[in-house]
Prior knowledge:
The structure holds two protein chains of two kinds. By secondary structure, chain A is mainly α. Helix content of chain A is about 80%, strand content about 0%. Chain A has one domain. In chain A, helix 2 (about 45-75) runs antiparallel to helix 3. In chain A, about 40% of the residues are buried. Chain B is mostly helical. In chain B, about 70% of the residues lie in helices and about 5% in strands. Chain B has helices at about 5-25, 30-40, 45-70, 75-95, 105-120, 160-175, 180-190, 195-220, 225-250, 255-275, and strands at about 140-145, 150-155. Chain B has a two-stranded antiparallel sheet with strand order 1-2. The longest helix of chain B has 26 residues, at about 195-220. Chain B starts with 5 loop residues before the first helix and ends with a helix. The chains are: A mainly alpha, B mainly alpha. The interface between A and B is large, with 56 and 63 residues.
Amino acid sequence: MTPKQPPAGTSFKMERVVGIVLRSGVIASTACLAAGLVLALVVGDGAVAAFLLNTGILVLLATPVARVIVSTMEYVNERDWRFAALTGIVLLELIASAVAALVFNRKL
Amino acid sequence: MPAVSVTLALIIFTAGTIAGSLGALLGLGGGVFLVPFLNLVMGFPFTVAAAISLTTVIATSSTVSAGRAGKQLINMRLGMLLEVATAAGSFLGGVTAQFVSQSVLQRLFGLVAAIVALIMLSRLRRRNVILDPNADPGLLGGRYHEEESGCTVTYHVKRLPLAVVASFLAGNVSSLLGIGGGIIKVPVLNAWCGIPLRAAAATSAFMIGVTATAGAIIYYGRGQLVPALAGAACLGVQLGSWGGMKFGAAASSKWLKILMAGVLFIVSAMMFMRGGR
């Protein structure tokens, strides 16, 4: 099968890299959450289960952030400054959310 | 907060599976069904329901988009451009959710959802596509292969400022109410911005991961995100969205629109009931 023409400007590499990041994040977080739930409910191991569940949630939250970071790097790599700047702004907005979370958690 | 028992985890897992499959079919993210269930049926505080739902929105977005990456159905450029607006809206929504009574916003949302549903139903036959495979989609437009017609579909993006405003509002509502926000973006992108429903839904599903994360991080920091419950819901939603995706490729655009309009009316009624109290 011959490769289909991509939409103007969107590289195949970008689609592939984004796919890899999302898939890895999904697999890692799902594994942690499933193991954590089984431990908590079936075995009843509190500390390890809580660690796994928290890790699973954090990996889940980190996956879109990682996708934005990788996209920014890929746009810089392609010298597409307009979109590098746009994804950079999205990254700053996510950082603002993390700062707000720390403020609500009174760690700042 | 209730103690997490095996029964509770199984109930939430099942609810997640149903919400996830419906969400994947409609490009909504599933939160539209999960939040009312957790809040009205299970009796969780609204913020706790919203936080659980936001994590499932992220899981759905990552799962669905990982499966679609490389098929050009997701308009990544448009998605990343509009994410600037959704993430800003979501950040503000996540912060406001900690301070503001939500009943006014919920009634407003009910109104918006009903209007959007009516617009969707009135535009069932519009295709918004150019069937010449050599047409230039422009900087933000897209091109993809539609399986049921066997055609290569090309489209231009029209009225970009409107798409940006809709994305900001979608991000805001997403964080405040714990839904994906596709409920606002997809109809606007489809009805006014010239983007075919399938591509609009895929692009929205791609964006809502980042949108929901901007809000979920704030709920997590506030301690409103219960990992065991969110975990059970996420696993269910992932199973459901996997099933929905398999079935979704075979569903026709017209029926998707009718189904989606019906969902919008139900959500609208629920928002009015809840906000009116």
